[in-house]
Records
---
Amino acid sequence: MNDLETLYRQVIMDHYKNPRNKGLLSSSGYKTIHIKNPTCGDDITIQSLVEDGIVKDVRHDGTGCSICCSSASVMSETLIGKTKEDAEKISEAYINMLTNKEYDENVDLEEAIVYQGVRKFPARVKCASIAWKAFQGTLESE
Ligand code: ZN
């Protein structure tokens, strides 16, 4: 494992052990999507709050593997404060990166770039992407 992979692994484990923005809120305006990954047992719920075209909050809760739970935490930190348009672009680029599709490398994935190694492990791609897919779902339900 090279230094960069070691660093990425540390970021993932930090978010797994100390998740940011964890816990669902019942305040009005939050859109909620529940999603499961039966192949791994990941079971996660994502909430987003969009106001005036800005992603004001992203919450997550659930159980799953380190990749799934940490990616929800990283996603929340990456997307809070972004415009809805930028959040959509980042989500799309992130999922395309994971699934080895062409993606716009000018889009700054910020800390979410730590999951780029996951594309080498097809069985884990779903783990790293379901939180983001759920987030996209919350935007579509606006
Ligand atoms: Zn998983």
Note: The chain has a mean pLDDT of 95.
---
Amino acid sequence: MTDTQAVRSMLVGIGAYLPANVVSNTRLEAMVDTTDAWIRERTGITQRAIAAPLETTASLGAEAGRRALADAGMAPEDVELIVCATATPDQTFPATAALIQARLGIPVCIAFDVQAVCTGFVYAMAVADSMMKAGQARTALVIGAETFSRILDWSDRTTCVLFGDGAGAAVLRAVPESEAGGRGVLAHALRADGRQAGILHVRGGPSSGGGTGKLAMQGQAVFKQAVTNISEAIEAACARAGIAVADVDWFVPHQANRRILDGVARRLAIPEDKVVVTVDRHGNTSAASVPLAFAAARADGRIKPGDLVLLEAMGGGLTWGATLVRV
Ligand code: ACO
């Protein structure tokens, strides 16, 4: 394969890792003024995993990456590119991707982070795919890893009940287009609107001082735009690939709120049983939620080789987007 040959990025491995500590809604009732019934009714969430004190975004991401490489039957030496999507890095620098590289014993390669909050994994897939198509790498490890529990205000009932920790990873392998058999990453649609930064943010950071702040969200303002934005990105990605939305086998959405998933499905006439839902068990794990949901649907036999799968997300930025892949 030469650098100039047209390639497809095939998804050849998937891995997931969730912390062992599962926190039910009932346990949250003891911490803030909330109820299991409110959380279930407004979000669909029943539980979430929360990282142990010694677990970090890099440790969760490394474990998901290790599992994805094992699933692909590949060794650390095979990896030429690591893209980690996270809004909760272990450190200001180096990148969490580099920390994961060291943990996995991956030799010198390209490694960096992508920061698009909950849309991070969709962005990271597009970045990795584009770099592989440009001949920069033949095997990529794309990771979404988060420890949102560390940036939550645990006294704010309007946000702390929504999020969880976790990591998911995918292995992409460049193959000549002529050998791909129509499989691989087919199209992306990525969007951002920084004018809306204020409705979902964490203040603080090295340049503004004051250390890392806590997550703040105008939930209804985000909610109002979610269905429209996500639906537009899904249609754009499908149009770019020349595929009808109805031909997609599985929708793997960012898991923020069950009502958003249902709203998008209604708007685009997507049958409910084509939508992978894990928000009930995982909560909103930001950049980890799409690969975690993908891994769950692969593990239980729903997503099979040859299926057309659409990944989509919306998050802080605002950012949103969709990726279409035939697995
Ligand atoms: N328990 C009990 N009551 C609560 C809780 C809670 N945990 N949280 C809020 N309430 C109360 C409010 O105080 C309010 O009370 P009031 O009527 O007396 O003022 C009432 O419930 C209704 O609050 P709303 O905010 O109107 O509830 P809503 O139905 O909008 O649900 C939610 C809130 C779940 C946050 C929803 O707006 C949402 O999902 N928004 C989008 C989130 C999202 O998609 N984020 C993007 C990705 S995240 C990222 O990028 C990091």
Note: The longest strand covers residues 165-176.
